[in-house]
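PROTEIN DESIGN WORKSHEET
SECTION A - STRUCTURE
LENGTH: 119
TOKENS:
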């Protein structure tokens, strides 16, 4: 089993920055991809950014050039640096991890951290 603990959400003015962190813990597994999804009120959860074990990254078009994902594989920790925040970035941000045990892969989710951008 993998546990994901997020930190770094909060309230920020438009144009400001926040940095999210997510640490994975557990035993008997390896972490392949990690990333972030978000869900705004009344909307579906959507991908923000992901990063693989070899640091291949993927971003939603809406955050390209503003958000940067990074990873410390030794610590199974992923970070999301969010700059030039907009009101439409408001939502609950969920950490995601693709864990592998033996030949099986499982999706894991954090509890979510609120990001609120005031205009």
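SECTION B - SEQUENCE
RESIDUE ASSIGNMENT:
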């Amino acid at each position: 089993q993998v546990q994901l603990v997020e930190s770094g959400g909060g309230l920020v003015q438009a144009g400001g920055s926040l940095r999210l962190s997510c640490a994975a813990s557990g035993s008997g597994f390896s972490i392949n991809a990690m990333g972030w999804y978000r869900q705004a009120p009344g909307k579906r959860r959507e991908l923000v950014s992901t990063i693989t074990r070899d640091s291949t990254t993927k971003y939603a078009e809406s955050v390209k050039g503003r958000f940067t994902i990074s990873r410390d594989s030794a610590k199974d920790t992923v970070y999301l640096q969010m700059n030039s925040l907009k009101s439409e970035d408001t939502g609950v941000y969920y950490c995601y991890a693709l864990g592998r045990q033996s030949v099986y892969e499982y999706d894991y989710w954090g509890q979510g951290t609120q990001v609120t951008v005031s205009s």
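SECTION C - NOTES
The mean pLDDT is 95.
The radius of gyration is 14 Å.
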